[in-house]
Amino acid sequence: MTMFVNSMKAFCNSRSLLYSRSIHVTKALNLYSPAALGIDGYLQSRKRVKDQFFNFTDTFRAKMRDFVSEPKHMIFTEDLKNMVHMAEPTDLDLILNMIKKFNNQNVEFRFGSFIFGPVVMRMFHFLDAPNEALKSFEDPENSGFYDQLVSYQILLDLLYSHEMFDDMYRVFEKVQEKQLNMTKFPKYPLILVLAACYKQNTPKSLEYATKIWTEMTSVGTVPVRRAATLFAALALNQGAPHIALESISMQKPHYVTIRNIKAIALAEMGRVDDALPVLKAVMDIDLPEQNQKHTFFDETISKVRSCVEKTENKDLQKEFENIEKALRDRDLIDNQTLDSLVTSEINLTNRNTRKLQGMPQMPYGMRKNRQNTRENMV
User: One GO cellular component from the entry (predicted)?
Assistant: First the structure.
């Protein structure tokens, strides 16, 4: 472990002169599915509330504006719940003010135990409002309102989809400061912040990811596979195959992302003779009639081939050609990419979500350009 930490520190120090202010990113989509974030449940509650307030929504909004502006009025739990579930983009300023007033009312007047943080973040996510979500989250007057790990997860996913990576780092540092549920490295927010580092793909983002990884492993926290593959893929992109190889060392080798990363990392470290057995090993597992084949990416084969050619070792080149032919003959090479797998959508639930009639099934930002009229939307 000490050698790994020192190796990563030395690498990051050697790369420090390469830093620049420019940030190169690729397009990011949401990393977690709506079901995984609980947005499907929010949509069902949204439809129920809007049905309940049918023809009375404007009246209710006007009442809430009065309640916010008049010191003598209070915002009750049901008021905020209803407004959050009927919210449209034009209501965001009103809701921000309602949250602030609700959170600052005397505690003795609150008798319910409803936890608003995750529900409000689902609303922001659905309305595709990252700036308002971040503003509310960082408002000191809302202290404690979003102190739930799932609230952080939803906010980070929303920021990720808008490529607001520097903001994600700041939010994650808040997660670590709070240590909610007695953990400094909660797995779902951790995956998201490493995804941000991967998408940003700069020497500085690798340094940030390395710092997190070093702290995490030094206290004995075992990262989940997606976190490991995101970190490893970033290291490969930044020319650090030794970091990539070490970061997947605690993962089971039979996963497709793990074996592809291992083969690429070994080859790019100049250890082609160790990379070839990794490629060859799947042929001892797979049979032609198997449905679940242990495959390699075409891009992996191409990268290993390039490293083999650089050795100018005829015996190694011949062995690689034989292995590649055997893999292709058995249909064990496909066109997937490491990027597509490490950034693929994560769904943490097996529940069958019910699509209610008239309920929008995509975030506001994706819906707003459609030709749906307001009347057809809940």
Answer: mitochondrion
